[in-house]
Write a structure and sequence with these properties.
By secondary structure, the protein is α+β, with helices and mostly antiparallel strands. The chain contains two helices and five strands; from the N terminus they run H-E-H-E-E-E-E. It has one domain (37-123): Roll (Nuclear Transport Factor 2, Chain: A). InterPro entries: Cystatin, Cystatin_dom, Cystatin_sf.
């Protein structure tokens, strides 16, 4: 009897893991989310958090060529999920010196490999 229960339990466990790893799709105009467990970043002035914001703006500029310049990360939250996802609100200025807030989602692995998942104005 134990033999028939074990495969069934493995199938159930695999199904639960699969369901828990599915992230809801972001609605148009929303930042993508990667599951649950988001926590506010306690110290946005941490040099690593500021570097992530600077990197996100730099990566955006490589694609958009819009001349944005990073000022600082003003708030954010993070989620550990096979690496760490950061949802940051950054302040950046355009070529005319006008400042605005931008949302960025950065995914970073332990080896410091990064991917910019999203970047857009927050207003």
């Amino acid at each position: 009897m134990t033999r028939s229960i074990v495969p069934s339990m493995l199938i159930v466990a695999a199904a639960v893991i699969g369901l828990c790893s599915v992230a809801p799709a972001a609605a148009e105009g929303e930042m993508p989310q990667m599951g649950g467990g988001w926590e506010h970043i306690r110290d946005v002035n941490d040099p690593h958090i500021q570097e992530l914001g600077r990197w996100a703006v730099s990566e955006h500029v490589k694609v958009a060529n819009d001349g944005l310049r990073f000022v600082k990360v003003v708030s954010g939250r993070e989620q550990a999920y096979y690496g760490v996802s950061y949802e940051l609100v950054t302040e950046a200025t355009n070529g005319a010196g006008k400042s605005a807030a931008y949302g960025a989602v950065v995914y970073e692995l332990e080896n410091k490999t990064r991917e910019l998942m999203a970047f857009r104005p927050t207003n």
